[in-house]
Amino acid sequence: MKKITLDKLSELYIRISQEYDLFVPSDEEGVVSFTPWKDDSNVDFDVLKTNLSPKSFIFPQCETLFNFKSEGKKLSIERLKNDENKFLIFGVRPCDVKAFHLLDNVFLREPMDRLYEEKRNRGTIISMGCIEPEDTCFCNSFNIDPLCAQKGVDVFTLKIKNNIFWKVETQKGRDLTVMLSGLLEEASEDDLKEIELVKESLNSKLEELPYFNIDPQKIDRSLIELFESNVWDEISKSCLGCGSCTYVCPTCHCYDIQDYDGGKGGERFRCWDSCMYSDFTLMAHGNPRTTQKERFRQRFMHKLVYYPNNFNEYACVGCGRCVEKCPVNMNIVKVIRELGGENK
Amino acid sequence: MEEITLKTREIAYKDLSTGKVDRVIGFAKGDFIYESNPTFISDIDELDALVWDSFCVNNLSKYLINELKDVKKIGIFLKGCDSLGFNQLVQDNKVDSDNVLVYGVPCEGMVDPNKLKKDNLLKGLIDIKRSGEKILLITKQGDKELKAKEYEYDKCINCKHPNPVVYSELLGDYITRNNNVVDDFQEIKEIEAMNSEERFDYWSKQFSKCIRCYACRNICPVCSCDKCIFENYEPGISGKGKVDSEDQFFHIIRAYHVAGRCVDCGECSRVCPEGISIDKLNRKIIKDITEIYGEYDAGLNTSKSSVLVNYELEDFDPFESIKGGK
Asked: What is the ipTM for the molecules in this complex?
């Protein structure tokens, strides 16, 4: 275990940014999101939920697949050059890291998604644990420990008072740490004791959270019973059909593929899609889900039933962004509860 | 507030049990003390869920479009700003006012949980009470009194219509507030004072934050097209690409489409997950309309025809005198 004091962080950022494109959670006009680090970045490690999740680093809202051009009967396709810069995201919370893993399940199985894989490989993740969970946090419902490194993290850090504690988790993390030698010092016995104390106090904080008893494992009805359940009519009623929940969600990963059609040439791109939208999965015969209730049900059945059937894990990490952002306060917690997923 | 809550239940009970309405749309408490959510009640046994407090911020009137396809008569709880939206829906022929009973609730302003959170005031919060321009927080650590103006939603701070402008029944007494506030469009004048390049940069930066979730459109009481152009993904019409041109296309078309009908309720800005001040675009248009056609508040008066859909020969010709934006 190593550590660095907060006043030395800017030196750390400078050193990192010589090798990587460095992204940090920073506050711009009151909104905290991961942005490229600059000298004057207003870095904020106290806000737990960045406004958008960091999924866009590995699954951007919009990316070009290729350009095309037609000349007479000939169609030529031009692949775009990949960005080759290594990037590093500093301060990714355990819930968001777990979400990366959930996206890996989808994109990194055969047939492998090369665009995704390439970005995943270029990235280094410094995760940061959460010592003060917020009211809208419920990662514990998905067995995520906010003070432990999730699989795939290169370095795990904890910010306690004036120190950031630094624990290497992978070879990438080891290389980074070597590069930063001189800036990081060894944590002392007293430091380790302090970390233990923080860990011990976390459990009681979690138990006090309003969503502590949410437990999707308690949902015990079959897929068909859940699908046909009457609760969807009631709980979908207030849904406006906007896409905020899906776009702030770290695990939503549905996409659409569209063209910019410039007549004789154009660009094919893929972009985030939302099951809340009327044209989601629209096909030649029409749309299989014609009402907002069906679209609403799709989102939650996907996260709580279909995805777990495929991968044995839920497609939610309890980050609580949808809880904060939904204009009408309808969210996955209420859905889980309505479906019976609560310890009483 | 408790008093209003009881009144909401009473009137809903009376009208549901006598069959005057088939359903009421109001608010119920959510998971947090600082959360009140839209609720739809047809069964008198469920009426205990109805509440009225400082978090009933949503404008419920838009729900009428869909709910009236389902039942004949609806009772709905509306604040001043909401009632303007309701009137506009009536004027746009989206809602038949004969099928709606409006229970008007005078409003002192709604409290923004995000502002409380920023000042770390949500921790240990047990209850929150409002009286006039003061908010009392009851917390595990003790009570705390706050100035209401500092914790209201932005849209409430200079509210022009604390009292419903249309109602069948009024719950509570008329409220007077902001008597001395004149809406002088100060924030719009600041943007107008920029040169065209600065202004372009300002708006480009705002629009590029957009994630195209369409929350602003879907919450808007006057965005009520059966099919929005932004649901038409034929190539060349509207694409999902996250590029400046698409973002700008959306925001400008949205603003122009609600021009003259926007009731300035500020819901668009409230729900924007990226914090874009969408209402500034609406308010620029409201300012222009006021300057060109005289004082006009959309939704205030349904008998008066809408300013931009009505033509008179004497109308001022903006193309003659203003000569575009540059």
From this structure: 0.93
Tally of helices (H runs) and strands (E runs) in chain A: 12, 12
Indicate whether A140 belongs to any domain.
yes
Threshold 0.90, pTM exceeds: yes
Answer yes or no: do A31 and B275 touch at CB < 8 A: yes
Percent helix, strand and coil across chain B, each to the nearest 5: 40, 15, 45
CA distance B311 to chain A (A): 35
Residue A343 lies in a domain: no
Verify whether the Cβ–Cβ distance B35 to A329 is below 8 Å: yes
Pull the structure tokens for residue B217. 């459109």
Q: In chain B, which residues have their Cβ closer than 8 Å to the Cβ of A29?
A: 275
> Based on the domain organization, do B192 and B90 belong to the same domain?
no
- pLDDT digits over A277-296, tens only? 988 998 888 889 999 999 99
- Kindly list the residues from chain A whose CB atom is less than 8 angstroms away from the CB atom of residue B213: 242-244, 246-247, 274
A286 and A183 together in one domain: no
Contacts of A279 in chain B (CB under 8 A): 231, 233
What pairs with residue B104 in β-bridges?
B78, B170
B205 and B276 share one domain = yes
Number of domains into which chain A is organized: 2
In chain A, what is the greatest distance between 2 CA atoms, to the nearest angstrom?
75
Compute the distance between CA of residue B241 and CA of residue A259 in angstroms, rounded to an integer: 9
